[in-house]
Amino acid sequence: xxxxxxxxxxxxxxxxxxxxxxxxxxxxxxxxxxxxxxxxxxxxxxxxxxxxxxxxxxxxxxxxxxxxxxxxxxxxxxxxxxxxxxxxxxxxxxxxxxxxxxxxxxxxxxxxxxxxxxxxxxxxxxxxxxxxxxxxxxxxxxxxxxxxxxxxxxxxxxxxxxxxxxxxxxxxxxxxxxxxxxxxxxxxxxxxxxxxxxxxxxxxxxxxxxxxxxxxxxxxxxxxxxxxxxxxxxxxxxxxxxxxxxxxxxxxxxxxxxxxxxxxxxxxxxxxxxxxxxxxxxxxxxxxxxxxxxxxxxxxxxxxxxxxxxxxxxxxxxxxxxxxxxxxxxxxxxxxxxxxxxxxxxxxxx
Length: 350
What we know:
Rossmann fold, Arc Repressor Mutant, subunit A, Serine Threonine Protein Phosphatase 5, Tetratricopeptide repeat, five-stranded parallel sheet, four-stranded mixed sheet, 11 strands, 13% strand
């Protein structure tokens, strides 16, 4: 197996030579450039390094602009990128890391520091390219939570979490254009594509493995690992319950709806799906109320209608159904109070 290739860029020959000799001694193949434009030309022509090490303060094309252009090449959006520079101030460090760089070493550096940094990043990228293993549980109702093997995952990128749920909702695959339209509307195609691949890389980092496969320019969640998705479970149980019209099954299905979809997120695709799920759940509750009434279970029907008014406060159908059920129980006072509450609610909303 050939040695990993490190591409190093620095306009100063002395530190560039130190970088080259240090990595060669550690067993890496090294290709050096003293002009970032030459490196970009090679990569645009098909050069595919395993790691990129770049200075920041360079003429013509500085390190930040070099990083941005590298990330525009689709095959290089996930390649580890390390900044190696004399700029040790915190502002420069924050800017480099905010762009998405994987590491930042300041000159002068110990040779072993550089070797260790390259080795760690290569090892990490190898781990991320392994198929994801373990049980993943994604809860989309209410404030979203994702767990792996029973442990809750922490997210430094909410877009990465959103991307996971978008892929869960599109198991038949999506194109980069479709993802970009949903998650980054208004961005140019190239910028949106770059954002997608960067976010996909961050998603791999959080989950600790490869979870997406691509074919025919479409991206799919791997079917080789198990993922429990509460929204899909709800849909399946709700369908069975509607077909069976059994009170117990309807209650169990309704109980799986534990809050509106992805609370706290406001992307257009999320708001559309959220509204669809709310309407679907309201319809399920109506079936549950009808089933209870068919069996003269007035207490059960009242509970369901009350749930409907909480789920959709402006549903006249829910409030009137509750009022009618109170009348069937012989409690006209409660029925009148229910109608008056709905009228006040509507008056307040005007």
